[in-house]
Amino acid sequence: MSLSGGLGRATRLFSSWQERSSLSAHVTEWDSPAVERVCIALDSGEDPSEALRQLGSERALAGADLEATFADLDDMCSALGLVQPPVEMVRAVSSGWVDGYETTIAFRTCVDPLTGLPTAEYFSVRLGEIFARHAGWPPYAEGLSLVVAEPVATERSPHFTERMISGVRWGGHFRSANALALAVLPNATMIALVAGDAALESIETFAAHSVNVGFATDLFHVRSLAVPGELSSVRSLVARLSR
């Protein structure tokens, strides 16, 4: 069944979603069987979870990263008149994306396959590059700070989809904030190296919001630490945060 030239609510959703996706250009290969399946499920009142999982899988197989996949989901929800995607939709798309991702690429030591964030090993390399580039300390007039998001101590660890969602949001937030380096550590702690300017408190606040919004309770506690002036000391700090 093709919705591209038909009538009805499912077709209107398809067209509105397609128009938004074309303007935002997050996903290059937008139209797929899952897109139509999602539109039909939403139109009929059926549970769209399986269709959304298929959508996430198809996006990953087509080479879309999770950030682009979430942005496309935002476009769909905008076409539905929703301010943001319900958590159930995000979970379904995330689960499907992981399945698709795992079938297309092998684990790479520089990137965490779950969150798409750089690993601690790659962060250490970036630190070496930053320190080598600047002979004096601090390398920036404001100094440097390490913003840290640590899993909140509860009876359960964050679910893998929660970790994935928070990791993508962390990466998106700090890439737009021009962070110098990012990483997720083996214990699910996320870090970002930033200039320690007067806006640091605001950076912490927005970072905490980005990784916790939409969840029933806060999953991560966000704080900032001053960065020592020696490379070995910074690497030791990151090693301690990894435990």
Measured between the Cα atoms of the first and last residue, the distance is: 53 Å
Tell me, what is the CATH class of the largest domain?
Answer: Alpha Beta
Class per helix and strand makeup: alpha+beta
Low-confidence stretches: none
Given the structure, what is the number of helices? 9
Shape: elongated
Query: What would you give as the CATH superfamily of the largest domain?
Result: Reverse transcriptase/Diguanylate cyclase domain
Strand content: 5-15%
- Over the alpha carbons, how many angstroms does the gyration radius reach? 20 Å
Question: How many beta-strand elements?
Answer: 4
Average predicted local confidence, pLDDT: 86
Order of helices and strands: HHHHHHEHEEHEH
The portion of residues assigned to helices is 40-55%
- Side by side, the strands of the main sheet go 2-3-1-4
Protein described:
There is one protein chain. The protein is of the alpha+beta class and 243 residues long. The chain folds into two domains: 96 residues, no CATH class; 122 residues, 2-Layer Sandwich (Alpha-Beta Plaits). Helix content is 53%, strand content 10%. The protein has a four-stranded antiparallel β-sheet with strand order 2-3-1-4, sandwiched between helices. The longest helix has 18 residues. The protein is elongated and about 65 Å long. The N and C termini lie far apart (53 Å).
